[in-house]
Each structure stands twice: as C-alpha cells, then as structure tokens.
Amino acid sequence: MKQTKNQNSYECKLNYFVCTSLCATKQSYKYIDKVYNSNKKKYDNYSKECAYYNLANSRLLEEELYYKKTLGIITSGEEKEFYYILRMTYKKANLLVKNSNNIVRLSELSIKPNTVSLEELLGNYAATIILAQSENKKLDEDDFFFIAFQEMVKLRTNPLVQSLLKYTYIDKDRKKKLKQIEIDLCDKYPNITKGLNELYMQKEDGSLDFEKLNDYQRIAYALDFVYELEGLNIIPLLNNKPNSTSHEICELINIWINCNGQVDPLNYDVLYSYIIVATKLRRLLETYKDAKKIYFRDIADKDKLLEQDALVNKIIQEKHDLEAKFNKTKSDLEKENEELKEKIRLLENKNKQLEEEITLEPSIKDELAELRNLMFNLSNCEDTTPTNNDVDINKLNNLNAICIGGNDSWINSMKEVLPNWVFIACGVEHFDTALLKNKDYLFVNTISNTHSMYYKAVENKDKSTKIRYINVLNRDRVLYEIENSL
Fold first, then answer.
1. Which of 153, 120, 154, 126 has the alpha carbon at shortest distance from 139?
2. Keywords for this entry (predicted)?
C-alpha cells in the first residue's frame, strides 16, 4: 500500500483491513518486530505519513503500537517483508494458496468455527487474497465466503470516512434545534456542564438522596460506583476538564436523537441522565487517550535514549579503537626507532672501522689512484710507439716486482727484457700466494686476466706492495708505461 495510491481504493482498504487484524493477533507480533526492528526510523516515518495513521487511536494500547508498526511496513512498499509477516502469521492461508492450482477459494480455508478469534479468522481471509494476488493466482469471486468478506471489508473501513457526528458536520437547522435543547437542559440542570449531581438531589452532607432519584437518574449515578470498583475516582477526571462546551453537549444530544432517543421538553430526565453518563465516559476516554499519548511519547523518548546510548557507545568504542591503534603505532614506532638507533650504531662502528682500515691501508688509496690513472690512460692512448732506447731497462729489471695476467707469448716476450721479474700467466688460478710476499710492486695485466686472479692477488699481497696496471700489449709501450708509473 504505497503512499501514492488512492486511500479509498480496494487494495488500500484491504491492506488497512489486514493491518487491523494483524495488530489484534498476538502471534504476529514477533514477526512484525523482526521486520520493524531492522529499520525502526524508516517504518515510523512511513507510518506517520500515512492517511490512516490517526486511526490507530481507536485501538487498545498494545494494538495501537503494533498497528503503527504494521502500517509503516505496509506503506513502505516492501512487499517481501509484508508477505513474510502474512505467511508466518496466517499459515493456513499460506498453505491454501500454495496448494491451490490456478483458482483460490476462501471456502476451502481449513479453519473450524469457534477455534480462533474473529480477528484471526478475518486476517486469514485477507491474507489468502493478498498472497494469492502476489502469486498471480485467481480468486473465485463467486465463492460465498469471498462475497461475504468483501462486505466485511466495507464495514471495517467505514471509520475511514470522517465521522459526521462532529459538531462541524451538523447542518445549520439541526444546530439551531440542538442549541435550544441545550439551553433548556442547562436552565433545568445548571450542573450538567460539569457532569455533576444537581443540588436538589443531594443531602445536607453532600451525598446523594436516592429517594429523590427517578429510575433514569438512578441508573446514571449507579454507574459512578463502577469506577470505584476499579479503584478510580471520577471527580478528578471531571475536574481535568471542568466544563463541557456547548458544542460537546450538542454533539451528545445529536447522537441521542440519531439513536431515536426521545426529547420531551416536559421531561428531560432521561436525556439528562444520558448526558451525565456520556460526559463522564467521554472524560474517561479522553484521559485514556492522553495516557496513550504519554505512553507512546515515553516509548519514543526511550528509543531516542537507546539510540543516543548506542551512539555514545559507538563513539567510546571508536575512541578505544583509536587509542589502541595509536598505542600500537606508538609502540611500533618506538621499536622501529630503537632498531634504527641500533643500525646507526652499527653503521657508525662500521664506518669507524673502515676509516681505521683506510688509515692502516694506504695501499688502498694507491690502488684507487692507479685505477683512475688506468681509466685516464685508456681514454688518452698515444699514437706513437716508444722504443727500448726511451726507457732504463736495467732499472726496470732490478725492480722487486711480480706481474699477473697475460698469455704465454706475451710473458715470454717480457721475460726477454725483464728476466728478474716473476710472471704468472692468465688462467693459473691456484698460484702460490707466497710469490706475492715481500714484493715492492704488483703489476696487473688488465687485457688478459680473470677477476678471481685479480682479487686473489690483491687480497694476499703485502700492505706495502704497490699496485700498477698494464693495459697495452706492445712490449716497448709496456716498458714505457711501467717506467712512467713508478
């Protein structure tokens, strides 16, 4: 039953009908609550916007509560949830629809008379129609029970029409007649607007003089003792609204006339007794309605407090989570900071160690310098080839030197002029490192050599041994480069 639909349509009336049946059927409450509690705020908003919302006032307290819940679910347009409530509440109706082929007959509903309440019975009929339509099954509209149920829907939905008994809807001529009767009554019974006994009916102590009461008055005042049976004092209820308005009295007179009540100007006792009882009943009903308003206001306040508590708890939990996350992050950072401090300490120690090694290993600087010279020489080779006459062969031959790398033919050529030198050919990986000891110079042939030989020689040489690099093959050029590197 969506808000856009005409509230006087049959579908809306049928949904309103099943709404009143559900709120009066207690076994539906747990299913209504299950759906309603999933989104209270949404269903409350839909319920309040519905044209039928105020009709909840006509229900008993608990029924009004579930009427509003059900109305919100129905008007939200969530058919799946609505059908769930119907199927779970009216299981026999659901079974009938499931077991029927294409045509569903209300007369086949297997509910024995007097085994369920009238509301539950009517709810089963309404649920059968709605569930059948939801499954695109036809209803036997000629079925006697279907026809009778349609009349019941019309009767039940009569309250949807604004009551014509209100003073606003009474025509002018009738209002004049009612006003005159009211004036006559107030003249004869001055306390009628207060709903109180007339003074001539009371004894000196204020109690009723029953001997002065006629039968009609006796019935009216006897009903006052019914309030006492239930522990209620009617006087405070009357004092809550001490004087009936002219319109209220006219409304009561109009109801009396509509019920074919006699209005005899010579004997207003019957009408007077009726108005006294009706006024007290009206005040009692007003008090009941006020109590319901307070009850539902308290429920709304309670729900609001629960929502606020839930929000506060959520915020507190989020705060705790953030604090825990902060503490963990802080702990992790402190741990990481300590680890970094330790790494810095180790690096500082390593740096110090390396600085000491550099200080103790001047040959490293020498090696680096020779490597730079090698790179420079590689990019600045001279085109002219020097001769043996350009170098001091004896000086070179007398050097305490060892040379690693070079092939056999190159080594044999070099031995012809430098017979005092130690040569280790390229590929002789497992040479005796003792050959490196006590040498002044270590010459490395970079053209024909291996990494392993180079590193082995560098790692096992004496600290005082100087490294020089040979990057040419021509013997005269080699001799020239050696002399220049000294």
1. 126
2. Coiled coil
- Beta-strand ranges (E) seen in 88-247 are 103-104, 138-139
CB of 122 closer than 8 Å to CB of 17: yes
Q: Which residue has the tokens 């209620």?
A: 232
* 423 beta partners: 403
Measured between alpha carbons, how far is 269 from 263 in angstroms, rounded to an integer? 10
Q: Write down the mean pLDDT value for the chain.
A: 83
Indicate the pairing of strand 466-470 with strand 441-445. Answer: parallel
* Length in residues, the chain: 486
**d(C-alpha 473, C-alpha 407), whole Å:** 10
* Chain region(s) in the chain for CATH 3.40.50: 364-485
pLDDT category, 287, cuts 50, 70, 90?
confident
Split at pLDDT 50, 70, 90, the class of 217 is confident
Task: Give how far Cα 421 sits from Cα of 271, 395, 406, 464, Å.
Answer: 150, 12, 14, 18
Average pLDDT over residues 378-395: 66
Neighbours of 464 (CB within 10 A): 11
Query: Is the whole-model pTM more than 0.70?
Result: no
Q: Are 401 and 419 in contact (CB under 8 A)?
A: no
Reference 94, options 132, 147, 65, 62; nearest CA is 132
Give me the torsion for CA of 431, 432, 438, 444, rounded to 10°: 10
Q: How far is CA 323 from CA 309, 319, 326, 335, 397, in A?
A: 21, 6, 5, 18, 80
Cβ neighbourhood burial of 468 (10 Å; 0-12, 13-18, 19+): buried
The string of DSSP codes covering 377-428 is HHHS--SSPP-GGGS-HHHHHTS-EEEE---HHHHHHHHHH-TTSEEE-TT-
- Res 82: pLDDT: 93
pLDDT in tens, 69-78: 999 999 998 8
Phi/psi-derived region of residue 267, left when phi > 0, alpha when psi is between -120 and 50, beta in every other case: beta
The fold for domain 364-485 equals Rossmann fold (3.40.50)
- In the block, tokens 């339509």 appear at 133
Residue 4: what pLDDT?
A: 44
Render pLDDT for 18-58 as a digit per residue (tens, 0 to 9): 888 999 899 999 999 999 999 988 999 999 888 888 888 77
